[in-house]
Write a structure and sequence with these properties.
- Homotrimer.
- The chain has 3 helices and 18 strands.
- By secondary structure, the chain is mainly beta.
- β8 and β9 form a beta hairpin.
- The longest helix is centred in the N-terminal third of the chain and has 25 residues.
- The chain is globular and about 60 Å long.
- The N terminus is likely disordered.
Length: about 350
């Protein structure tokens, strides 16, 4: 009798075990991030004296995240991500005191063969395009292009944060070598007041050539003086081409503010050359600012560096940067750092 009950218990446990295994196979969750810290003398033209310090986010802004997907059948997956910035030099959360807990990404969405939709706080596709159009990648502090477009201390020329709140982002599947994204951020004010953001991006990749075109209109977000009254339209074209053994980069951005009438035009050239177990990088960018009641000013920023691959997840880097605002003295930064991906 006892043997019969034991066999019955094993049979009833099998369906539950199979269901649990099936559920596990249909969903996945990953924990990941980047820890990037550097040390050295640092100065930005027009922003005070040189300081000797340890800083977070040299080649990439440090962050950690949790992301996952669940297959709900019929070729549909539910996707989500929560990503938070961290200052490795002090252990402080966020890039600045006013950052939200999950300021990089906080979204849920759907992925199908017709494309992908995300809702929440989402990385601006235009920011991702700029990060892939220069040899220093997503480095807002050391990459000349990103410093001028997105860095607050270097007079950022693109309105809105690198991530948008209250966003809806649709990304198409690959159509040959092309991919498109259409996105918006709701201003969450009375309907018809016109405080939302809109943007679109087209990318092309064929192995050697990677190219981006993006346009966005920003009415709410960082650098917008009065939501609904101030606004900015920005247009970006950039990319890279891989030759035998080295890559060239080029980009151009135009940012046009409506209230007040201001314009910022930014051009950038760069190169990356394999050397030993790493890459030599060089980039130069210039921004010209013009507008009603403003003096014609220019900012020139250049950088050279070496990124050494110590392991598949760890890199060591050294970067020399020079920065000059036309109304201030030249400034220099020397960064020795480490980036670890987990």
């Amino acid at each position: 009798m006892k043997r019969r009950f034991k066999q019955a218990g094993m049979l009833t446990a099998m369906p539950a075990a199979l269901l649990a295994a099936n559920a596990h196979a249909q969903s996945s969750t990953s924990f990941y991030g980047v820890l990037d810290v550097w040390a050295g003398p640092s100065q930005i033209s027009g922003a005070g004296p040189s300081t000797l310090s340890v800083n977070s986010g040299g080649m990439q802004t440090s962050f950690w995240g949790i992301a996952g997907a669940e297959d709900v059948g019929q070729g549909v997956k539910v996707i989500y991500a929560l990503e938070s910035y961290i200052q490795v030099d002090s252990g402080t959360a966020g890039r600045a005191p006013n950052d939200a807990m999950f300021a990089r990404n906080a979204y849920v969405g759907l992925r199908t063969r017709y494309g992908e939709v995300k809702l929440g706080r989402v990385l601006d596709p235009a920011f991702l395009a700029t990060a892939q159009s220069n040899p220093f990648g997503g480095s807002i502090r050391l990459a000349p292009l990103l410093a001028q477009l997105w860095g607050p201390a270097t007079g950022r020329t693109v309105y809105g944060d690198t991530s948008w709140d209250n966003a809806i982002v649709y990304t198409s599947p690959a159509l040959g070598n092309f991919k498109a994204a259409v996105y918006g951020a709701l201003g969450e004010t009375r309907y018809g007041t016109g405080t939302g953001n809109l943007g679109a991006m087209l990318s092309y990749a064929d192995g050697a050539l990677t190219a981006f075109l993006s346009a966005q209109n920003v009415r709410v977000g960082q650098a917008v003086a009065t939501p609904g009254q101030s606004q900015q339209a920005s247009y970006f074209a950039g990319g890279s081409y891989r030759f035998d053994g080295w890559s060239a980069y080029a980009s151009y951005n135009v940012a046009l503010g409506a209230v007040p009438q201001v314009a910022a035009r930014t051009g950038q050239l760069g190169v990356s050359v394999p050397a030993g177990s790493g890459n030599l990088m060089a980039s130069w960018a210039q921004t010209r600012n013009t507008g009603d009641g403003l003096a014609d000013t220019r900012r020139n920023t250049g950088a050279v560096g070496y990124n050494y691959t110590a392991s598949p997840r760890t890199e060591l880097y050294a970067v020399l940067q020079t920065d000059r605002l036309s109304t201030a003295n030249r400034a220099h930064t020397c960064a020795l750092g480490m980036r670890h991906k987990f």
